[in-house]
Here is the input.
Amino acid sequence: MNRSTSASFSARAMGDDIQIDSLRGRELFSFLPSYYETSRVMRSDMDAKGSELDALYLAMDATVGQFFVRTATWGLERWEMELGIETDLGKPLDQRRAVVESKLRGAGTFSGQLVKNVAEAYDGGTVDVIFHPAEWGFTVKFIDTIGIPPNVEDLKAAIEEIKPAHMAVEYKLRYLTIAEVESMTLYENEHTTQDRYLGGGA
Here is the structure.
């Protein structure tokens, strides 16, 4: 091995000691002339700059996410303030998002579709709304959700806000049927919460 080959090998080995962990750092490095491939200084420089760019892009993505209710996190408080909703930081994010989304859906003339839109924003599943004109009321029937929805009190408050004062509302929950329970394995039965059985959530 001659001196130039040895020197090249040594330089490449030294350059390889510095790994570029940043995604955008590797992208920046790929635009440099090939003779920088063995440079520890340029590898380190691109990694540092790339890390800053990675953090910037993450921050930008997180900021854009706040403009959409279903992806908002720290921006939910702004949505709640705009809609006159009291902020409760003790609630899970998905429940707070459901309150905001329901409020946004709750504008317009009262109808079965309006109630359905609001209820499904909370529940995340299919909901049927059945009117009883003779009794001046209606029933909100949960189709997909088994047991008591975790934020049912928020849902009730939202429907009370949009429905006419003279109309009564009833909530019909879905529980596991005997056939469904009998088809469950012992493991599934042991790991099913009591509120999913009829009478278990009382």
User: Anything to note?
Assistant: Strands lie at 127-132, 137-146, 168-174.
